[in-house]
Write a structure and sequence with these properties.
Elements lengths: L14 E4 L4 E4 L2 H14 L2 H4 L7 H23 L6 H20 L11 H10 L2 H11 L9 H15 L4 H129 L10 H49 L7 H11 L17 H8 L4
Antiparallel strand pairs: 1-2
């Protein structure tokens, strides 16, 4: 169900009837009722101007009753149905059918009837009996108490019908009235057409403005969407390139990562091993030197021989050298373990940075690669080799000048 806006005009069916001389239109119920009242006034003289000597009042009632029925139908049934266009259309058809049926059987006549002007002329001249006789004659109604006045009116009516008393003028006037009604209807229809055209122009102009606004918004939205799409495609392309570069670099660095992982695990094991070895060597050296001194050098100084002292010195030197060598190996593996761990971390960080747009410049990338693939150092001290002979030992033990 669609809701009609308050400003939207409901188009109702027009009341279109065919009279004795042509077609007449009524745009509203009020127009039709006013026209009916005008038709009733045509024969109002039958009750107000003539005494009921020949049944004129009865003739007035018979003529008035059909018109009153049409008026009541229009006011009581057709008018309330204006809010329901479908029911209004059905009632209009019913009203038209009633009017035509009454007109066809001669129950009513209108101001457009050929004899209506003759009747009006006689009323204006004051010959009401002739006008009443003419109505009764043309509608096939009977008047009572036939007398000279009725006979005179009938003769005058017959003379008018044969062409006397301005029948041609009456018919001409009737046609002129019909033409005027047509001109009025044409003028009214032209005015409605002009109003409809103006309204159509207004609606067209409004629609064109709305269409232009919609087109501008569409172009703006299309431009924004195209820009967003272009940016999204560019971002996707850049991300794909970065991902491809990362994938290629990952493939290229996969072997180094695996190598440094193995090196890290290897040096970690050696680190633990040489840690225990260094501690054990230190303990053995101390306990051995203490035991040697306890069992061999437990004598008075005057009784010690040089050979025992030299042996003690040699054993001490080799013990220190062994402990230091184990400590250096421990420190070397610790250094290599840390270096391998750092290289793995740097490779993963480098791969992560490659996935970000413009995160690394070419010179920074080269610097990172040089750092990753720099030569490895063991951390060993070159002077940590053992003494070749006793003279070298004595030279090392001698103070430097």
């Amino acid at each position: 169900m669609t809701d009609q806006s308050p400003e939207q005009e409901v188009k109702l069916k027009r009341i279109t009837i065919k009279t004795e001389a042509g077609t007449r239109w009524f745009a509203s119920v009020e127009d039709f009722v006013n026209w009916v009242n005008l038709q009733i006034s045509l024969f109002g003289f039958l009750s107000s101007k003539i005494q009921n000597n020949h049944g004129e009042h009865n003739l007035h009632q018979r003529l008035q009753a059909p018109w009153v029925q049409l008026r009541q139908f229009a006011q009581q049934q057709l008018k309330p149905a204006e809010t329901d266009p479908q029911r209004y259309e059905q009632l209009v058809d019913n009203l038209i059918q009633q009017f035509h049926s009454k007109l066809d059987v001669g129950q009513i006549f209108t101001s457009e009837a050929p004899f209506a002007d003759f009747v009006s002329q006689q009323v204006e001249e004051g010959d009401y009996q002739c006008a009443a006789t003419a109505i009764a004659y043309f509608l096939n109604e009977n008047l009572t108490n036939y007398d000279l006045k009725v006979a005179t009116g009938l003769q005058k009516t017959l003379d008018w019908e044969r062409g006397e008393y301005g029948k041609a003028e009456s018919e001409t006037q009737s046609l002129s009235n019909l033409r005027e009604s047509w001109d009025e209807e044409l003028t009214r229809q032209t005015g409605q057409a002009d109003q409809s055209q103006e309204r159509l122009d207004t609606l067209t102009d409004r629609a064109n403005k709305q269409l232009e606004g919609q087109r501008k918004r569409f172009d703006k939205n299309a431009s924004e969407y195209e820009q967003e799409l272009s940016d999204a495609i560019e971002k996707a392309r850049t991300d794909l390139e970065a991902l491809t570069q990362t994938y290629d670099d990952k493939l290229a660095l996969q072997a180094p990562v695996r190598y440094w992982k193995l090196q890290q695990e290897y040096h970690r094991k050696k680190l633990v091993l040489f840690g225990w070895v260094t501690g054990l060597a230190t303990l053995v050296a101390i306990l051995g030197l203490i035991g040697f001194a306890w069992f061999v050098l437990d004598q008075k100084v005057s009784e010690l021989i040089v050979g025992k002292l030299v042996t003690m010195a040699v054993l001490t030197t080799f013990a220190i050298w062994a402990v230091r060598l184990c400590a250096n190996l421990f420190m070397s593996h610790n250094h290599l373990h840390t270096d391998a761990q750092e290289r793995r971390t740097m490779i993963h960080t480098y791969l992560s940075l490659l996935r970000q747009k413009n995160a690394l410049k070419e010179e920074e990338r080269q610097l990172i690669l040089q750092t990753l693939f720099r030569p490895n150092t063991t951390g060993m001290i070159k002077e940590d080799s053992g003494p070749a002979h006793l003279v070298d030992l004595m030279n090392r033990m001698a103070p430097k000048q």
